[in-house]
Amino acid sequence: MTTVVELSELAEHFRQSDATFGASPLYRELCGVVADDEPTLELLMRRRPGQQPSFLLFGAVHHLLLGGVEHELRDFYPSVVGTPARDPAAAGPVFLDFCRLHRDQVAELVGTRLVQSNVVRRVLALRCALAALRDLVDGPVHLVEVGASAGFHLHVDRYRYRLGGRDFGSPDARLTVESEWRGDAPPPELTHLPEIGSRTGVDLHPVDVRDPDQRRWLRALVWPEDRPAAGLLDAALAQAVAEPVRVIAGDAIDVCPDLGRQLPAGEARLVFHAATRMHVPADRRAAFDQAIDSMGADGPLYHLWLEPAFAPHHGERADEGLLAWHGPDTTRPVNLVRVDGHLRWMAPLDGGP
Fold it and tell me: Which domain of life is it from (predicted)?
């Protein structure tokens, strides 16, 4: 009975997910096809708790195609064959055939891999918060990213940024992060940052940036049509190889309290997570929030998040498309700026989309 219910929930998830993939015509087409195919849905019964089903399944198939598996399906992926990719309207039956022929390989990936941070542009969220902290704190700020993956967001001060016709950050950076500014008011000033005292990531399964297979997994989580995002990811991974940062392997619920005690007492800490809490099992989200809050026991805590409305911090009501944070002595969210989930655009709170 449980299996029937879970399959029904998975089918409904895929039927509702086409809106999630607004920038991926291929994945929008595949959502409806997968929703109606029980054998493919059954593959997802093996996933780890909390993992977003459509991201995980599509990432697993993409990973195999990027790794060289030969099948007609590859012809629908711009990331594999380039611009002459086939019309997504014909991809559904081919996708199901791929999942049938390579069922064991897909199942292995679905059962062992995690949906991990791969959107480099989200580093702009961290840059915005750091710039806002410049006038709020004295002394260094210690960066902690939960769900850090390969840790490339923690290089926030080593990138160059282009927003609203202005450039910020290092002119000699390996990569430039660009986003559209949608508003008549000028974009936020992102030049001056506080001193970064330390940078630490926390992840259930940190990505070893020296391992081609693990790098390819992150690449597979980028939607097939988004070649600019894939290029940014490659450059960010190269930065991570050149200047590794510490990423602790473990559950944030277990790691964060001890990590908070290790940071210098009295010094500010900025904890960031993006599209991470959404993957925490619902019955563990309260403990996740408490673990992050515990990091403020020995120093001022600034907590920044970019999560979908269905997974708001501390259960607070959340509006879609807002970057929010809270400072010391409160858990009430304060909105900073309007954003697209992948930071393709940003806008002031009183304007934009």
Answer: Bacteria
Nearest one of 347, 333, 251, 236 to 291, comparing CA atoms: 251
Report CA 208 to chain centroid distance, whole Å: 17
Contact 307, 277 (CB under 8 A): yes
CATH annotation of 120-347 = 3.40.50
Contact 86, 233 (CB under 8 A): no
Q: For residue range 39-97, list pLDDT tens digits in order.
A: 999 999 999 988 999 999 999 999 999 999 999 999 999 999 998 899 999 999 999 99
What is the spatial distance between Cα 250 and Cα 318, in angstroms, rounded to a whole number?
28
- The structure tokens 């493919």 sit at 40
Q: Which residues of 177-197 are buried (b: 16+ CB within 10 A; e: fewer)?
A: bbbebbbeeebbebeebbebe
- pTM for the complete prediction? 0.87
- Distance (Å, whole) CA 75 – CA 243: 36
Contact residues for 330 (Cβ-Cβ < 8 A; gap 6+): none
Residue 280's SS3 state is coil
